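Hi U.,

Before I forget, here's the chain from the pilot set. I'm dumping it here mostly so it's searchable later in email.
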Amino acid sequence: MVDLLNSVMNLVAPPATMVVMAFAWPLLSFISFSERAYNSYFATENMEDKVVVITGASSAIGEQIAYEYAKRGANLVLVARREQRLRVVSNKAKEIGANHVIIIAADVIKEDDCRRFITQAVNYYGRVDHLVNTASLGHTFYFEEVSDTTVFPHLLDINFWGNVYPTYVALPYLHQTNGRIVVNASVENWLPLPRMSLYSAAKAALVNFYETLRFELNGDVGITIATHGWIGSEMSRGKFMLEEGAEMQWKEEREVPANGGPLEEFAKMIVAGACRGDAYVKFPNWYDVFLLYRVFTPNVLRWTFKLLLSTEGSRRSSLVGVGSGMPVDESTSQMKLMLEGGPPRFPASPPRYTASPPRYTASPPHYTASPPRYPESPPRYPASPPRFAQFNIQEL
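Structure:
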């Protein structure tokens, strides 16, 4: 019975859903526009003297978000690894209009560091109203061509746990103020793009985590998920960030296309959406069209990407911030990567084994025909058992 029901629904549900969406789309769009207009004029949160904690605030989208909150008169807590860079952002934020700014050098993938900067923010300001998680790290390598897998956990730590830990620590204080969490996600969490496998996986996990958390919080703490396509950040301006120890290492990455919308506009949209209480901020919106293709006609989306990728010349790849792209030698199909710290840990060619198995002797080992001789009489033992020393168990 269940199989029959599923078979019928497989045939009926997709076209019926498309028809309903076609008729309901104008009405739903009007409702959404009306709600957004009302929130923009009558329900926008006043950020004057509110406390905003921003992770990843030393550059890129985190820096621009700090400036947007500064224009609204908020008190800022800027968190990142590079303290010197945070001082530059702090001075500019004060000039723009921030009431007060404190900077804290911390690592968001360490729970103890997250507890420290949230505690310092609460001790200084007495509250936390918005937590903005922007720490992120991308890559542009083909998964099968990676030679050093030590970058794998680093990518997942920054893109996933670097958001979860600050959220976990700040939630009790956000409950007190009915505050809001702002998440910097990406369209790659559902749109498959080549050379972004681990980044896409981390962003997908991140979005699903906050979607679930939204239901758990039941409106006590708001959540705004911001998704973007390619934007003009440091990632697309030819630089990547790779953290080593307590310092931020800058490496050059020549492969990432520098196209997409302006970073400042996206930051303005995020802050405006968070203050309106929007659940989602998308930049640009037309990326959602691909979601329909993925759900209803996934082969069309796959064929489109294959067609776009077929126009590329030699295949190039790189690791996160540890070298520039190197072309593949198509004659041998072996990619040569230049890494800091020596060659890859694995041999370039697989180990060679002998074609023939090891040879064993044809004849079994020779044993003596006669058994060993034992004494005719058994050994003599004392008639009485040996005497053992008596121990006091209580003393032991």
